[in-house]
Each structure stands twice: as C-alpha cells, then as structure tokens.
Write a structure and sequence with these properties.
The chain has twelve helices and 16 strands. It is of the alpha/beta class. It folds into two domains: about 70 residues, Peptidase S8 propeptide/proteinase inhibitor I9 (Alpha-Beta Plaits, 2-Layer Sandwich), CATH 3.30.70; about 280 residues, Peptidase S8/S53 domain (Rossmann fold). Strands 7-8-6-10-12-13-14 form a seven-stranded parallel sheet, sandwiched between helices. It has a four-stranded antiparallel sheet with strand order 2-3-1-4. A hairpin with a 2-residue loop joins strand 15 and strand 16. Helix 6 packs parallel to helix 9 and helix 7 packs parallel to helix 8.
Length: about 375
C-alpha cells in the first residue's frame, strides 16, 4: 500500500511538472509571443490554451479563433493538438507613408457634390490610428479603440485623421472638403501612436465594423506577411456586405509585384497612387492585385488640431472610399460587390494594369452610367481591363 501511494505521488508530481512547464517558460522569458489560434469544429477551448501556459487576449465573434500569448515551445506543442486547426504568429502592420485638395475634383467628386450627392446615410469606418473627433472640420458619428492602454479612439498620431479628412472633411467655410462630406464617419483605432498595430487588433476592428453594420471600411496600412485569420475576417466582412478598401503599399516598383496585406486579398480593393498628371507615384506598389488608382501625392487634409500635406497610397485609398460612398447614396440598391464592379467598369484607363489596375476612379462616370451590374459575383477581385 505504501509503495502504491509512492507511485501515485510520483505520477502526480510528474503531471504537475508537465502541466506547468509551458507556463514556467512563458513567465518573463523572451520567448513569450503573440499568436492567433484557430480551433477545429467551430468550438474554442479556452482551457486548452491555459493548460499550455497561455493567456487568452481576445476571442473573435465570427470564427473559432483566439488571440493568445504563448511561449514558442508551447505554441509548437499546441499546434499538434487534435483540437487545433492551425497556429500563426500575430503579424504587425504600420501606417503607410506620411508625406499629403486637388484630389477631390480629380476624381470628379466636385461635380457629383454639386448635384446634391454627398454621401448622406452611408456609414464609413476608418481603420487606423483613430480620428480626432474634436476637429472643427470633421463630424464623427462614433467609433471604438482596440489598442491597449487607450480609452477611446482619439488619434494620437495624425495618420487616421488625415485619411478621415480626405473622405469626409466638411463642406463649410474652413479648412478643406472631403470627397463625401456627409457620410456617417466612424473612427476605429487599431494602430498606436507610432502608427503600428497587430493583426489581432485589426481583426477586432473589422469585426466591430461588421457588427455595427458599416457600409465601407478604409484600411490605409500594410503588412508584409499574410495571415489566414486576417483573410477570414476580411472575407466574413465582405460576405456580410462591407465594401473593403485598402492601400496597396508604398513599396515602389517590383517586377514580381509587391502589393501589401490586407490589400493583396481578393476581398479588398487594392488602391494605388497617382500624381496630378496621372503618373503612377514612384512609391506606389504594383502587381496583379492592384485594382484602381487615386490621387496620392501632396494631398492636403485634416490632422489633429489643423491641416497638413501628405503623400502615399494611404492618401489614395480614402479617395476611393469617398467615391464609393457617393455611388452608394446615389444608388442604394447596389450591394458592395456591385459598387465595386461599377467603380472598376467606369475607371479611366491609364495603361498597363500591372501598374495602374483598372485606372483612375471616376465618381461622375460611376454615377452617370446607366447600365447597372446585377450579378453579385463570388467575392473575388474584378478582372483587370
């Protein structure tokens, strides 16, 4: 009996060491990293993460995925568990170039605004560093923050406010005017004061936009690595009716193509930048995923407490968002895929699609076109001309 108790005690001691070995490695070690964990069978097992010494940071609403902290050793072991579909590192994104309103008339938004179409009733989200909701030239309807150690979506960088102004700066006697000044504007803070953020925070912002029935989402940031979870979140939003617009990236020319994530994904309109002469900006990324072009060189827009010029595909993307909002108000019967197709069908051809996609977005042509695309499609990118 005494021998049996000794054996049981030894086994218990071994199990205790095994169950805490991952935790002891995690605590305070440099191997402690952020991961996205996807479970099989649509069932999230939070306790399984804890058993591997992990900390669950966030659980997502529309897919069986959690954002966690784990040691590298624990992550490798957990990946072999039968309940786990996959584990991937939590990637990082950074706000694209801040160098920036000739762009408004260049996309023919001025003529559309003069006809009384200004984006009224269209809900637009700016997924970025936040938005200065106290700015005198912006009318912000609401928002949320997913950046740790922040209490609200106030912009502490400037990038998000600049993007927001290109979409929706008010038509008043001060400052600048946006492409669609009457949209319902929402600031979704997923990038910190340095312009950096994680895929996990971006995903949370996308899900917030979906839950709150936003119509269009601007994503003026770029990551170098793909993420199955990020792609799933984008596809979920797109299939729910959200039009997704992303900056193609400021990586310049590459003969193999270099469009960044999330713009690279099929569910996202990848936007490149042109100058006032319709030349491709030398910083603007190229590739077969490139879909449409917009003004992105020396763009004046709002920043916290004032105004500034900046350049980048970050500045081009909100021009497309604004035009999409004008079209959505003009033709509310169109769904997100039909709006996307119309923008592509009516764009002004600028040349080789590898460099220019389908061409320069044209608000007047998109709205005045009589033929309406009736086929919903399958959620993939519009073929280049």
């Amino acid at each position: 009996m005494k021998r049996l108790l000794t054996i049981i005690t030894s086994l218990f001691f071994i199990l205790a060491i095994t169950s805490t070995s991952f935790a002891s490695e995690v605590d305070g070690t440099p191997n402690f990293k952020d991961y996205l964990v996807s479970f099989d069978n649509d069932e999230v097992d939070v306790n399984l993460i804890k058993n591997y010494g992990g900390e669950v940071k966030r659980q997502y609403q529309y897919m069986p995925v959690v954002s966690v902290k784990l040691s590298e050793k624990a992550a490798k072991a957990l990946a072999k568990n039968a309940k786990v579909e996959y584990i991937e590192p939590d990637g990082r994104v950074k706000a694209i170039g801040q160098e920036t309103p000739w762009g408004v008339p260049h996309v023919k938004a001025t003529e559309v605004q003069e006809s009384g179409i200004t984006g009224t009733g269209v809900k637009v989200g700016v997924l970025d560093t936040g938005v200065d909701f106290l700015h005198e030239d912006l009318n912000v309807s609401g928002g949320a923050t997913f950046v740790s150690d922040t209490d609200n979506y106030m912009d502490d960088n400037g990038h998000g406010t600049h993007v927001a102004g290109t979409v929706a700066a008010q038509n008043n006697t001060i400052g600048v005017i946006g492409v669609a000044p009457k949209v319902e504007l929402y600031g979704i803070k997923v990038l910190d004061q340095s312009g950096y953020g994680s895929y996990s925070d971006v995903i949370a912002g996308i899900e917030w936009a979906t839950t709150n029935n936003l119509d269009i989402l601007n994503m003026s940031f770029s990551g170098e690595t793909g993420s199955r979870t990020l792609q799933r979140a984008l596809d979920n939003a797109y299939n729910s009716g959200v039009l997704l617009v992303g900056a193609a990236g400021n990586n310049g020319f590459d003969r193999k193509g270099n469009v960044g994530y999330p713009a690279k994904y099929d569910s996202v309109i990848a936007v490149g930048a042109i100058d006032q002469q319709n030349n491709r900006a030398d910083f603007s990324s190229v590739g077969r995923e490139l879909e449409i072009m917009a003004p992105g060189v020396t763009i004046k827009s709002t920043i916290p407490g004032g105004y500034a010029f900046s350049s980048g595909t970050s500045m081009a993307a909100p021009h497309v968002v604004g035009v999409a909002a004008l079209l959505s108000e003009s033709s509310p019967e169109l769904d997100n895929i039909q709006v996307r197709n119309r923008l592509n069908d009516t764009a002004t051809n600028l040349g080789d699609s590898f460099y220019f996609g389908n061409g320069l977005v044209d608000a007047q042509a998109a709205i005045s076109t009589l033929e309406t695309t009736s086929t919903k499609g399958n959620g993939t990118k519009k073929p280049k001309k």
